[in-house]
Design brief:
Number of helices: 3
Region (Disordered): 56-81
Biased composition (Polar residues): 72-81
Protein name: DUF2630 family protein
Structural class: mainly alpha
Distance between the termini: 24 Å
Helix content: over 70%
Order of helices and strands: HHH
Organism: Streptomyces physcomitrii
Biased composition (Basic and acidic residues): 58-70
Shape: elongated
Largest sheet: none
Amino acid sequence: MDQEQILGRIAAMVDDERKLRDSLSADKGDGTAQRAQLQNVERELDQCWDLLRRRRAKSEYGENPDEARVRPSSQVEGYES
């Protein structure tokens, strides 16, 4: 996945995230499935942002950005901002 594809994926997921949040705030029901879906989108977004940052860093330091791979969400979620 190149930078433009990652950015496109991020934009689509941000839209999904916004719709899910709006739906949860408007919904008077349980919302368990929507919350689970929102958590999945948030994890995927974190992975995409991580991949994008690592691709950019590789490029900046003269390495091949295509060598960067998506890391497991457990690894991405495990470090502090």
